[in-house]
Design goal:
The structure is a homodimer of 242-residue chains.
Chain A: H1 27-35, E1 37-42, E2 47-49, E3 57-63, E4 66-71, E5 77-83, E6 88-89, E7 100-103, E8 107-113, H2 114-123, H3 125-151, H4 154-169, E9 171-173, E10 176-180, H5 185-192, H6 196-208, E11 213-215, E12 219-222, H7 225-232
Antiparallel strand pairs in A: 1-8, 2-7, 3-6, 3-8, 4-5, 4-7, 9-10, 10-12, 11-12
Helix pairs in contact in A: 2-3, 4-6, 4-7, 5-6
Chain B binds a DNA duplex (30 and 30 nucleotides) through residues 153-154, 184-186, 194-201, 203-204, 216-217.
Domain HTH crp-type (chains A, B): 152-226
Keywords (chains A, B): DNA-binding, Transcription, Transcription regulation
GO molecular function (chains A, B): DNA binding; DNA-binding transcription factor activity
Chain lengths: 242, 242
DNA sequence: CGCCTTCTTGAACGGTCTCAAGCCCAGTGG
DNA sequence: CCACTGGGCTTGAGACCGTTCAAGAAGGCG
């Protein structure tokens, strides 16, 4: 989980450029952004911001995994977003955080001070444009998740989660698909609106039924991808893998 | 529910201007938009678009209520958005509908042909800017809803729904707050991730406990707003009413 | 009036949660 | 080497909340 990247951090060799907020930027625009950016690495488990905190920056995930979550006064919590490399954190035009952001693995962010970022935003339509796309993509993901939370069974929820992970993190090896889960069972339960016990039981059930193989608790093999699709209950949105 | 508006439909007397996609536009920009817009009214119950349909337009809700929903092959469905006047439908840059859009009351939309709208979007930063805001607001609402779907009890779900309705549709009359529910029990159940029976039972329970009064099935009085806030389980986000 | 549709109410079932142990494994210290 | 510890995970038994199935009430409208 703890990968050490010794290469210098510059826009030129940035691994997330193709999908990030700056993907459409010209060389000139990149230089503008470059002036106001800074990198920071958080250890696993660290809190990046807490709901209600003043937000003085926006950022892109460069490496690692973070979660967005909301919680109720009595402690119940629901994860509302999973942030993987290239995902964007923060909202221009709002000065208080609407969610808790937590690093679940070692996490490196590319920060922009918010005020200057907003200026750049107004001046460069390419950033604004990409921001609309990102926001609308996240909106689609959130709504997909609403269907999962409101209507899917525990088993379908687990299968859907594996599907999402497989699409973004999986690697084909021969016939089957390998992936390493980015979350603990506990975090999975927060994501899926379940308890940790139910997550554990359903993982066991899917294993028993041959939908997946487990190596340890995090490494998963999917022998038959279409089987997983069925289990997730989605009306197959094509795209076997990116 | 069926209001007939005989006034001529023009941007000049548009009731939703302050919040709509065009709210920031200058007179010149409005004229550009005016060229590519057209109004259309749908009867209650009509389908506006179905998931997967080609989307040739985007639109704003002028009057009436519409819902966004997704459904699974076996018929389970989850509402993922409630569209009230001034809300925006559609997504520039995508040509297939991601959800079903349904009119739940008589519904009037202000349509823009998508292609020309996208051009205007690129040319006028004010529209782009407002689009980012709208998308991010919807994202916040969707994530709030995820907390509700994943973690709240049936009773809390009903109370939260009433709260949302009260905030956007309620009118103070003396001490108490009056509002007319925009949805049937059935649509409420789709929204809240419940069954219609549970909705009915919990409405009855809230009535029994004095949280609300019912006149018929749609007209609701809230004698004590802060009581409703408690029942919803939210960490009071201030804003008693608009 | 009868016939819709919408809503309410009741009884039984079942999926998920709660509570409580116990397992596995890595790390630590004797 | 072992014993101990703590975190993450699994497993079991029972309770509970919301669903399912079924019937009936309340309007709206011919």
């Amino acid at each position: 989980m703890t990968q050490i990247d010794l290469s210098p951090k510059t826009c030129a060799n940035c691994p997330i450029r193709p999908r990030a907020i700056c993907s459409r930027c010209t060389a000139d625009e990149l230089m503008e952004l470059d002036k106001i950016k800074f990198y920071k690495t958080y250890p696993a488990g660290a809190s990046v911001v807490l709901m209600g905190d003043p937000m003085t920056f926006v950022a892109s995930v460069v490496s690692g995994v973070a979660t967005l979550s909301r919680s109720m006064i009595d402690g119940r919590m629901q994860m509302v977003g999973l942030l993987l490399p290239s995902d964007f954190i923060g909202r221009p035009g709002r000065d208080k955080a609407s969610y808790d952001v937590t690093a679940v693995s070692e996490l490196t962010l590319c920060h922009f001070h918010k005020k200057p970022f907003e200026k750049v935003t107004h001046a460069t339509p390419h950033v604004q444009e990409r921001l609309v796309e990102i926001a609308l993509d996240e909106l689609d993901a959130a709504r997909e998740w609403m269907l999962l939370l409101g209507r899917k069974t525990a088993r379908e929820k687990i299968a859907s989660f594996l599907l999402i992970c497989a699409r973004r993190l999986g690697r084909k090896e021969g016939e089957s698909l390998h992936l390493e889960l980015p979350l603990t069972r506990d975090a999975m339960s927060d994501y899926l609106g379940l308890t940790i016990e139910t997550v554990s039981r359903q993982m066991a059930a899917l294993k028993r039924d041959g939908v997946l193989l487990l190596e340890g608790t995090r490494k998963v093999k999917i022998p038959d991808f279409s089987r997983l699709l069925d289990e997730a209950g989605d009306d197959s949105d094509g795209a076997t893998l990116s």
